[in-house]
Amino acid sequence: MATMPNTEELWTVREYLRTSWSPDREFVDGRIAERNLGEKEHSILQRFFTFLFMLHRAEWGVEVFPELRTQTRTTRFRVPDVLVVRSGTEFERYVTHPPLIAIEILSPEDRLQAMQEKAAEYREFGVEHIWIVDPMQRIAYRHTGTALEEVRSGELSVAGTPIRIELSAMFAELDR
Q1: CA nearest 121: which of 75, 63, 64?
Q2: Burial 8-18 (b: 16+ CB within 10 A, else e)
């Protein structure tokens, strides 16, 4: 297992891939980045998405993965809270091709601006649908290609598929 370099040293991709953390961390241009998570609301919504996509995977033609490393650039690995790929998508240990959906759930420490930058990186990588959910404010956003846009239709969806997630049902999970 690699040891943590001091703050002046940069990690290599190889060192990152050979090291494990709990929870997993992201790799951004040689630096290890911690992720905010682990609180009740975050966990509830992550469970909701994972269960819903798993339940409908045959009907929706998808596979769902919570917290799966995704190589967005040569020197960047992100770990979306929930990742959805089309059925039949093949990969080894981590994702190297754009998934159908990347879902990020905000924790109280997360800032929307930082999530906007991560969403832009996902878009540049080729992710078709990027959803960001704020459980505290009970707002969902989708990345439109240039910016985050609040979802006002009452549902998250993927055009041309049966994928539909009612925001009211999703946020009702937080009140159970």
Answers
A1: 75
A2: eeebeeebbbe
Task: Give per-residue pLDDT as tens, 30-55.
Answer: 898 887 766 899 999 999 999 999 99
| Beta-carbon count within 10 A of 149 CB | 12
Position 118: which residue type? Answer: K
Model confidence, pTM: 0.89
Kindly list the domain boundaries of the chain, sorted by start residue. 36-175
3-state secondary structure at position 168 = helix
Q: Which runs of E-coded beta strand occur in 13-163?
A: 26-28, 31-33, 62-66, 70-73, 76-78, 82-86, 101-105, 129-134, 139-143, 148-150, 155-157
Rounded (10°) CA dihedral 145, 38, 152, 64: 60
| CATH class of domain segment(s) 36-175 | alpha beta
Mind listing the pLDDT tens digit for each residue in 95-117?
999 999 999 999 888 888 888 99
What tokens were used for 82? 């929930």
Name which of 157, 38, 158, 81 is nearest 166 in CA terms: 157
